[in-house]
Amino acid sequence: MARITAGIASSHIPLLGVAADQGKAGEEYFKPIFAGYDWTREWIAQPENKPDAVVLVYNDHASAFDMKVIPTFAIGCAERFGICDEGWGPRPVPDVEGHPDLAWHIAQSLILDEFDMTMINEMEVDHGLTVPLTMMFGAPEAWPVKVIPLAVNVVTYPPPSGNRCWALGEAIARAVDSFGEDLNVQIWGTGGMSHQLQGPRAGLINAEWDNRFLDMMTGDSDEARWIPHIEYLRETGSEGIEMVMWLIMRGALGKKTKCLHRHYHVPCSNTAIGHLVLEPD
Ligand code: DHB
Ligand code: FE
User: Fold this and answer.
1) What ipTM did this prediction achieve?
2) Does 194 contact ligand 1 (Cβ within 6 A)?
3) Greatest CA separation found in the chain?
4) Is 12 a catalytic residue?
5) Mean pLDDT over residues 210-224, rounded?
6) What is the 9 CA–ligand 2 centroid distance (Å)?
7) I need a labelling partner for 197 at 20 to 30 A (CA). Which of 63, 86, 114, 163 fits?
8) Does residue 206 belong to any structural domain of this protein?
9) Which of 131, 133, 132, 107 is nearest to 120 (CA)?
């Protein structure tokens, strides 16, 4: 039987992809940011922690989708996902290998569980998905895990509610549990933390709020699922709403979690970087 063994949360700031690709991760500005991932890189390289597959919850930033099509929740069922061109050419990282059998199983289980997923059989992925892979695995020839992209609309109003995201995470856990093959599956929630990229409040960071949110991810509190959109907007800026994707990860870990690793750093580009490694407890 497949099981969700851990959850990882991470910001997905494109500048970190640039730093890694151009060999700048050791520079003064980037050093403390990458150092906060050292623990995780060592941990995930241990055979007992290395997932067979990752359900990677992320958002597309008008790369694969645009105003013509805006799926609220979409699941990537393809064999392979290419790397999209975000304006400077595709990142020089390997294509992402999918897990079609598990992805179709999760899609079926979610839809029959009343989560109306969009199924995607051809898609390129952007920094929302590739930057977390880089932070966890560095620059391998091929990514060492299979990835099921789970795309969430947090770009065009209205994004899904925190409660709906948490419930989707719970349903993903049920789906994984009912897959026949013995697989170690992780779920990652990406994006955040506080940031606003445009308008008069561009550059907004709220470290106090972010750290309370990090606290809420550990233990048995489900307070975070009830945070309304307006609070994310007011307290964490227009792009802070990406944090609802962490709630899908958190919901999938069950009633209680244990925190194995926590990292927070300001600034990284325009954003507060947050990273957690959690286990179901
Ligand atoms: C930045 C952060 C993001 O989450 C993103 O998607 C794009 C840019 C930034 O801080 O530059
Ligand atoms: Fe983003």
Assistant:
1) 0.97
2) no
3) 52
4) no
5) 98
6) 13
7) 163
8) yes
9) 107
